[in-house]
Design goal:
Helix content: 40-55%
Structural class: mainly alpha
Number of helices: 3
Number of strands: 2
Radius of gyration: 15 Å
Order of helices and strands: HEHEH
Shape: elongated
Distance between the termini: 38 Å
Strand order of the largest sheet: 1-2
Strand content: 5-15%
Amino acid sequence: MISAAGWPDSPLDAVDSAFADLTCDPDPLSLDLDTLAGQLGDDTGLPGGVVALPALRQWLLEHPGCGKWCGGS
């Protein structure tokens, strides 16, 4: 349980803290991008296989044009 005193005041800081907790070693959350790419189409440019969320986050930051295939502008 997280105490109110230990939780960030800003919503974005809270999301960042939660993401960090869910994606830290030794067993970070991951996503099977082969399944996702199959649903989105083969032209996404996503890396293949099971990717840990920190690595996917980094890839998304390095590829800002991904919004074209994921419903963004």
